[in-house]
Amino acid sequence: MTGSRSRRVPTAGHFGTYLAETDGTVVTALTPHPIDDDPSPIGTGVPSTLHSRSRLTSPMVRRGYLDGGPGTGVRGDDTYVPVSWDTAVGLVADEIDRVRGRYGNSAIYGGSYGWGSAGRFHHPQSQIHRFLNLAGGYTASVESYSSAAMQVVLRRVAGGYPAALASNPTWQEIAEHRSLVLAFGGIAARNAQVNGGGIGAHVNVSGQRKAREAGADFVVISPQRTDSDDALDAQWVPIVPGTDVAVMLGIAHTIVTADRHDRDFLERFTVGWDRFEQYLFGRTDGIPKSAEWASSISGIDAATIRELAHRTFGRRTVFATSYSLQRADHGEQAPWMALTLAAITGDLGLPGGGFGCALGALHQLGIPVNGFRPAAFEQGVRPIADFIPVARIADMLSTPGAEFDYDGARYRYPDIKMVYWAGGNPFHHHQDLNRLVGAWQRPDTVVVHEHFANSLARHADIVLPAATWLERNDFAAGADGYISAIVKAAEPPGDVKTDYEIFSLLSERLGFGREFTADQTADDWVTELYRRTRERTPGIPTWDELLEAGGVVPAPEVDPGVPPYRALRADPAAHPLATPSGRFEIFSETIAGFDYDDCPGHPTWLPPREWSVAEAFPLHLVSGQPERRLHSQFDNGDHSRAGKIEGREPILINRVDAAARSIADGDVVRVFNDRGQCLAGAVVGDDIMSGVVRLSTGAWYDPVEPGGLDAHGNPNVLTPDRGTSRLAQGPSAHSALVQVEKFVGPVPPIRAFEPLGSCVENLQVYPSVEGST
Ligand SMILES: Nc1nc2c(c(=O)[nH]1)N[C@H]1C(S)=C(S)[C@@H](COP(=O)(O)OP(=O)(O)OC[C@H]3O[C@@H](n4cnc5c(=O)[nH]c(N)nc54)[C@H](O)[C@@H]3O)O[C@H]1N2
Ligand SMILES: Nc1nc2c(c(=O)[nH]1)N[C@H]1C(S)=C(S)[C@@H](COP(=O)(O)OP(=O)(O)OC[C@H]3O[C@@H](n4cnc5c(=O)[nH]c(N)nc54)[C@H](O)[C@@H]3O)O[C@H]1N2
Ligand SMILES: [Mo]
Q1: Catalytic one among 115, 161, 413, 482?
Q2: For residue 331, what are the CA distances in angstroms to 14, 53, 349?
Q3: Closest Cα to residue 702, out of 603, 658, 636, 637?
Q4: Which of the residues 65, 80, 113, 171 is marked catalytic?
Q5: Share of the chain above pLDDT 90, in %
């Protein structure tokens, strides 16, 4: 790497735009792009990973699979053998052919959920789905780990999730109306660092600060003090996790008792108020949902709950719910109830007020919506209909043919013989990983494309090494309204190929090469998608002009249309919501008609099922998003690793709970329940309320033996794998109870960042590992 040859090229990830310092082959640093005044440091850790020990540099096949063929050996407990691309491609193509011929295409699970990386063309989900569609189709997944419960319930009662997002109040409106923001689950500034598809420049948190300066007031109702930016000067109201619906009911009860509800709004724009009011006042179950009642459940005193209600009187109010509230047992209820509160106060659809759908939880939420839509790599048509709700993967794999309920209908799980993943990691995102490891043994074959020897690669049969976004040309253009060039900054090491090259080889082998590639190289496709984007939206610079401008430009403003909630308010007859009544459904005849005991016809307080084990496991575990990473991505990089304690993921624990367990700041602790156990590094303090611990997601799963203690601190060995309800079947990660104790004895090393081939040999002896303590 000589200084003279070194240059800087623009690049973009889900966490922002950067300049990559490169000699043309190797990237030495990512520095924030000058266009970004509030950049995320997450990207700075990426270069340290590209040539690290955990980088995959050639196709690998699990030893047992190579010897015994499909369906043999144990995933997660085997060594790996490097093979040529020719061998690897042959194995995968033959297996696709065998499985689809013998069992049909529904036996291939290609949901491949996950964030992958930014880039309109190389977007791994588009790549894999286009490929599998041409191969005859695959069993897909619906909804997301982020928002499944919200997506399904809002579709039933409020015209859909996109309508809620399009109707979100912006920080600017909140500033103009000096609104009161009641943020259930907070507005963690660390979460606005990222956005799917990229971020030109970070403006979300500065928007929040401007709203505060203009006179908006923020209340953060959350177990963690640091769930909002300090500059917001928010009132912190600690709450027992999983009890938000009770508190919202207590607020509603107080408002209606004071006769301050907006009867006119309820009458004109909602249905079912009468039914809900019966419940609110306990006429159906004998329990008035008073502030006192809510207090006994949530740990917030009744006076505070009443005060929150009183503060909404005569004040434009936002009832915001983070995504975390609905990634929990009965997760459908919190967003539905927040919407109901916003209907009670009549704020729904008013600028700067109403329902705040996950405000600030992603960079795009809270900033103005731009109707600009870039072109995408077409996935084609999926020729078969089989699907699962995304978080039901372990159920599907372990009980083929079993019936499941989802959104009013009953379906059967297909019998999966082959799993194919590119651009996501179920051993990061799924709950109850020990259960997943068991279910994961059932299919005959697991194929993955990965950058690194991470937990997914370690549980695969055929591992194909994929290029990172720094090793490809592309462009990013996301919901934040910027267009960013991604200029190839490094050569992929070793035998690494892009996802596109891999799928092109496979397509050729399977006889549909030309259909997949359309005879275009990757660079041809990038040029073509950029051309289509420009064709759709006048005012976008040419590629050369984009580069001359530094590689990042704002996209032209495209009118997104009137937000649906506002349009409804203006003229309900002309702009009904997409619900059976055309209005907000506080009581949904449709949902009531499904007769689900875990999701009744109106927002309802339902205690989390997890609470049945509270005696043995007294601490609530919240496993939110990591400050130093995007999920599990680049956990092997220096930025993420600088945040570890003794190499373990930090766990926040309250002073009182720590003292009761003789745990000191910096201790290695064992976190456990009936589902699993992991180590973590204690951070003792007052930022988390007593009775709750916080362990972020994303430490690479690192069991000392299959199913054993996770040495590194992945919370998903502890979280329950339960659908939110039969309505949405979403993930319920945030409803987990655990116990914590000081760890005694020799601390096992971190092996998560070791090369793939060595993963089993190292098991016995805990050798000293480079970079771990
Ligand atoms: N306990 C708990 N669990 C959770 C959550 C929680 O709050 N608590 N949150 C959930 C949520 S909201 C989400 S969105 C999920 C996120 O879950 P995922 O999206 O699955 O997590 P990532 O770590 O982003 O996984 C992306 C993977 O794709 C790989 N990758 C990146 N780019 C490319 C590429 O171009 N090609 C290929 N082939 N691979 C690539 C990365 O190396 C990485 O392994 O996690 C969920 N899991
Ligand atoms: N830095 C960074 N930012 C990210 C991501 C990332 O990986 N890294 N991932 C992005 C993605 S994919 C998504 S979907 C969003 C997720 O956005 P969210 O789901 O909103 O984020 P979380 O961090 O899971 O949770 C936010 C806070 O909710 C609180 N909380 C948990 N359970 C409860 C509860 O029952 N009641 C109340 N009142 N509070 C509770 C926790 O204290 C937690 O800090 O974040 C995005 N932002
Ligand atoms: Mo997410």
Answers
A1: 115
A2: 26, 40, 23
A3: 636
A4: 113
A5: 96
Coil vs helix vs strand at 497 = strand
Hey, how many other C-beta atoms are within 10 angstroms of the C-beta on 313? Answer: 12
When the pLDDT of each residue in the chain is averaged and rounded to a whole number, the result is 96
Would you say the CB of residue 623 lies under 6 angstroms from ligand 1? Answer: yes
Tell me the ligand closest to 692's alpha carbon. 2
Active site residue 323: no
Amino acid residing at 538: P
For 165, the enclosing helix (H) or strand (E) is helix 161-166
505 Cβ neighbours under 8 A, 6+ residues apart? 85, 89, 497
426 C-alpha to ligand 1 centroid (Å): 7
Residue with tokens 């090469």: 513
Ordered structural domains, the chain, with CATH: 60-145+382-400+411-554 (3.40.50.740), 158-364+562-594 (3.40.228.10), 614-742 (2.40.40.20)
Q: Is the pLDDT confidence value at 732 over 70?
A: yes
- What is the whole-number distance in angstroms between the Cα of residue 322 and the centre of ligand 2? 7
Amino acid letter for position 530:
Y
Which residues lie at CB < 5 A from ion ligand 3?
A: 146
- Structure token digits, residue 159: 């015209």
**How many whole angstroms from 656 Cα to the centroid of ligand 3?**
32
Of 38, 322, 357, the residue with max ligand 2 atoms within 8 A of its CB, to mutate for a pocket test, comes to 322
Q: Model pTM?
A: 0.97
For 138-177, what is each residue's pLDDT tens digit? 999 999 999 999 999 999 999 999 999 999 999 999 999 9
Say if ligand 1 is within 6 A of residue 147 CB: no
Of 146, 154, 221, nearest to 187 (Cα)?
221
